[in-house]
Amino acid sequence: MRRPLHLVTLVVSLRELVIGGFLEAEALVTPSRLAAGRAGARVGAAVAEERLVREDVPALFRGRSNTAAVWKVAWPAVSIGLLRTALGQVDAYQIGRLGSVELQAIGAASFAVWLVYILGELSSVGVHALSSEAEGAGDRGAIASAIAQGLWFSLLTSVLTAALASRSAIAAYFRLVGVSDPKVAEAGNAYVRVTAAWGALPLSASACASAGFKGIGETRAALVIAALCVVLNAGLNCLLIPPLGVAGAAWATNIAAAIACVTSLVVLRRDFGVAVVPRRPSLRAMRQIAAIGTPLASSGALFSFVYIILGRFVASVDPLYLASLGVGHRLEAVAYTVGEGYAVGTATVVGQWLGTKRPKDARRAADAAARVAIATMVPIALLTLAFAPSAAAFFADDPMVSRGAASYLRIVAFVFPLMAVESVFEGACLGAQQTLSTFLITLVGSGMRIPLALLLLRHLGVDGIWAAIALTTLFKAPAKYLAFQLARLDGEDPKRPPFPPRRPRKKGEDLDLPESQTSSSSSSSSSSSQ
Known about the structure:
By secondary structure, this protein is mostly helical. It has two domains: 57-281, no CATH class; 283-496, no CATH class. The chain is 81% helix and 0% strand. The protein is built from 18 helices and no strands. The chain has helices at residues 2-20, 41-55, 66-96, 100-136, 140-164, 167-176, 182-198, 200-216, 219-244, 246-272, 283-317, 320-355, 359-395, 399-412, 416-431, 436-460, 462-486, 515-529. The chain crosses the membrane at residues 105-130, 142-165, 221-242, 248-268, 289-313, 333-356, 368-395, 407-425, 437-458. Residues 1-20 form the signal peptide.
């Protein structure tokens, strides 16, 4: 009898999540919003409330609602993602001028390079979660320690990556992905070798240092550094690609990443008091970083592997549809990057609230992030539905390719709002340092795409593959929401039910404010009315 009840409660909770935040206007967490008493004990209560806002709340939330705090972190993170996407297009353009062989080489090498990036991000994911918690606790020294241990972890993973990237291993990889042209394989081998052997450390260290900005909630500084890095990278491409070929693009990326890492460490020390100094590696700290980062890194690797298999299914219909999928991904990158930005923002605010030992406020912040992410993604979905054919035609001259890309975009656009929910609650689980559940959901959800695509391919053709990609999001989004609801957050009552009954909202209460603020404000208002 309990299972149906839990199911109904889950549906009701999701409904409240989506519509609850639009019933009240957004409010700022400022002392002026706290009702001051007129005399006696009410004056003392107002002073205590002001002290709570000024001293006991992380700096990210002073003068901001949960939504505003998430947005402050998210929009620079989105911009950084778009800059990286633009850099990829610049690389492809400059390498494409060398010839079709070189362009095919970087295309074939993309999965191997993506794996190098995933291993590099492993340490930064853990540092982000630990830094957010430390910032919530008001301990910038712990942030510096987390970054230092993350750099040690980056060194460890880069040595492992370089050891695995032997010429024979890379040659085996290109045979696996079906490269038969020896010139393409040779150029791709050089690109992967430089990235894996010489780029793993600067790429990972740069991401690790940038995670410190995310933890503090000051991603605007990271955005400025990323923008300078992109400009530097593009300039180095012009210098290094002509004499070195595709390897020159890899060297340009490596050099720019190393400079970005050093710059980030200097800015963290100068502007934010996070002084990263050499210290001994801590096995305990690195185990903690691995425990947080490994599940998400594994999710990224699994996600890429599934797309390799789906690519084979697409090619079985017509090889031209592979180009359709590529164009679709290029345009879908806007929605994906927005979702990733909100994931970063949610991880930061949840981690900071947990650092202050306020799990209820962490949950309210995650709900607020989901609402604003949905509100952002709905117009993106509508624009995609409206302009998919013209956008696809802009990137593809072949009518068959553009039609396939437009069909892909129109199918996946329906689940953009759910993709936002998935990203937000994956970020919430990261902020809570409980990422294993999200990996298991990705394992099941992304794995389901393979048999589902095979089934629908027989009846719908290539549109069946596009539908399989969209349908699995219908599972992953509520599953990750459920995972966060079931997670036992630090400082939370062990007897808390998975879906506690929601108390009726009081008149004038803003769901976007921390619970400690709304409850104290409501009590002050009631006292004043008496």
